[in-house]
Records
---
Amino acid sequence: MGAWAGTGPPDRAPRPVRGAAALELERRVLSRGLWLKTERRGGLVLRRRQRWCPRPLGELLLRRLVIRGQHFGRYLPVVPLRFGQDLGDAVVLQPFAHGATPLRRLTAARRSDPKIIRSLCRFWAAVQRGWLTGGWLPDIGGRVFLPWELYRPWQTDNVVVDGAGDCWLVDAGASAVFHSARSPFGRLHAALMLGALRQCMRRLGCGVDGPRR
């Protein structure tokens, strides 16, 4: 497997808005975590520390986020991440995936599109290979309102499909406790998540390297 084993070439990743003006646009909070929050600002997505998060901890978590994105980017199509500054604070910048649809919002017609099926088969197969070879699992679980919803890969916001039918990982956040093979919790989570992925792949007719149909 080469450096890029995902569903789309890296030069097709969404492009960021250039210039400082991109950071002066109105903020829209997309999600809030315990230590980090995610905002959209025009054509950019920003991740930054929460007000109560100590600066050194925030910068450590942001640095790990970029490192994790680089790791997953070796075998998955990841919307690229880079460091930046906003109002004197360290932030991680990422192009907003314009026109892309999270998996959980795909219509029934798009779910049955052969191009999207092939793309998903390749994406999920690469996730499995990445776990076996690198011991890390990206956060591709479903949007959780109830605990069992986590293991519904179709219900995730962290994987999107662009207008060409290619899949992208848009959130490279993955904690070592729940996503690394070094942790017993990570190994348990991976067993459940990969089992759910294999069920989805069987329903789509995926073979080892893609769909059989």
---
Amino acid sequence: MRVPIRSSRMVPSHLGQSIDNLPYLAFGYHASIFYTRAVRTLGRVLGAAALMAGGVILARETPPPLSSFRKYFWGARTAYEQRNFKKAQRLLQTYRDLGSPSDRLLVQAGCDPKQEVALFSAALKDVRACIAGRSQSLFWTDSERAKLDILLAMRDGNPAELEPYVDCAPVDLTIPPTSCGVHQYPKPPDLERLAAALRKTPDILKQPNWRGFPVDPHDPLRVTWVLYTYSDHWKPCAMEGAPIISLRQDTAGQIRIAGLAASCLEF
């Protein structure tokens, strides 16, 4: 007895549709898999591209590796400027123990690291000698007396009389900024050069302007007074409002000359 084959119309509607649409469902299933894989692949590609772009940006923003010159020599110079001379000597000795390496990037920029080291080494040697003879150096205890003595000596008297009052490691107040960051280290005799330059334009010291600053106990520089001028003729290296001389008061209350204009005196 032959059993008649039922057509798809006799199958329940939801099953019939599934069976009739099977090829389409299979195609849709494979298409969805292909689409998912394509999206994932595209995401990986875009992610890799983003990482590469981020790497380029980081490479541009990340500073170059710190060389021994910049780590130890520049560190010694910073300690010197903060009047931490023992630390400066220790870092300089570490730099020398490494063979006094140069800095390729600075050399390519036209800088002279060897010259900088030579200047700094001489300045640090002068500081050690200054500290050894500090008990014999002169100082003021009255800031008003110090300001008057400086003006009289620089304007009308002998600036050499002020040299014993110059503190160890005086600062050059008018050194122009350079791409190499070269430092200058003035000495007490530079006061005579400064006085000679100022006397060419007497109007500068005829209008002195002393500005006082409160002493910060945490500031190793301890600058208390800075001499400026109201004259428009004082423009070393085209720097308007540049300081001329600065005073510092140490923890013992002794006042000495902390800095002076030693650069750009051809104005």
---
Amino acid sequence: MPNPSSAATIIAAVRNAPGNRVKVAVSDIDGVLRGKYLHKDKFYSAVEGGFGFCDVVFGWDMMDVTYDNTTLTGWHKGFPDVLAKIDLGTYRTVPWDGGVPFFLGDFVGEKGGKEVPLLICPRQVLKRVLKRAEKLGLTAMCGMEFEWFNFAETPQSWADKKGVAPTTITPGMFGYSLLRANANREFFAALMLEMGEFGVPIEGLHTETGPGVYEAAILFSEALEAADRAILFKTGAKEIGARFGIMPSFMAKWSQQYPGCSGHCHQSLSDGHRNVFHDANGRHGMSAIFEQYLNGQVERLMRGEDPVPRLCTILLRNRSRSISFLAANTVARACELRRDYTKGLFYARIARDHAEAVARPEWLATASNQIGNLLLAESYFEDAAASYRQALALIADGGSPRQLVFEANLGYCELVLGRHKSGLSLLYRCLRTALRRDWERIEMIARIDLCYAHLELGRFETAERHGRRGLALAERIGESDWIKNALYLLGESAVLAGADGRAYAWFHELQRRYYPAQSHLPDLLLSVDIRKLINLRA
């Protein structure tokens, strides 16, 4: 909340504003802005004591359909009003609505006779998180970006179409097109100008890939202000668009034919002097705090119920070939990560069949590569190589990361099958392109596979050179399986080169990191050559 002097200034600004109304709004459970107009007299009293707002906004969806099995609110409680408190710090005026004063509010409840934040209120949730950061002396900074479709529709025209086949304001896929932006320049200009006047400054605005798709980058700010700007931007874009007969839509994906709507949330933490996420000496410039922050987010996202059964249900019940491909391919990848290769092959082949049915070469290539990975993990090297060749035949020869990964997979198969010349050719091609384009992960794969190749050919110094570089990259990227492979191959290279001391050091490091209970492992690997018994891709 602003201090008393600024609060008085804001209330005075409202008194001097034209008209007798004020617009107030809150966030519902889905992050949709819900609001109403208050008479100025009502607003002045609401500043002191709050105003009532029906708590149904926490019990229904975007179409006002009430949720089942609710506890906080619902028919069993009669959807009563709860108290919302106006945040005077959110004051702005709405330039396309006669300059009406506008404020956001927070929901509050009561506990022990005292006013407390309503825990389910989205804005209060964010405030609660930010207070925890403040106790650590940190301020969260965020910058939001949105991509969205724009339709030449009105609510009535789209209702008449029953929500099917809306007309986009421009045809074709033209990202960053000045011509497409100029086709609706009045709308484009209004977004830039009026959003700025509304306190939602746009840093950049351009067309994106997709018919009628725009992307806007909102100027970064402290996290609470960034969240306010985000929810206000989406509502503001729709209100501005209506003036031009344009309906913006932020729906995640309205058509299987086109990319979905997207967004980015750029985040950093400041201690008041610097960005504590950055460390010039850290891995990729990342500080330890940033690595902890990122790990926490990943851990939270991965927590919860297993998604595979739900994906299998989608696969069984869905009639869309496209959705079935996506579900089957995701299940196959999950099975690969869990090392359930037989089940993974079953789903990967289903994905391939759906990709063939919809005639999507890029999807068929993905499925073929997935099948190859699963066959390779089961040591069906010839069959895996055939799948990789099928995948490569389906994509353009442009040296893309995807192509290079397919080629590296095939290269390893060729080496294991004794076709060293072909395998080396593929891997060196990957390495050259990766070095030229600074693609570290692909360089890592090529280096460690080349270490194996030269080890097999008796070129131990060359094998060690590639192995050391591959290990360094794997360490930097954090690829545990590849670190394990590199340590083993470096130990084996040293054994065969007659450097037992160096070999023991590599094998001991392998044992220390990955097999701590098997203290005998370094001695075993020094005395027994197990290269023919292991599959580096299993």
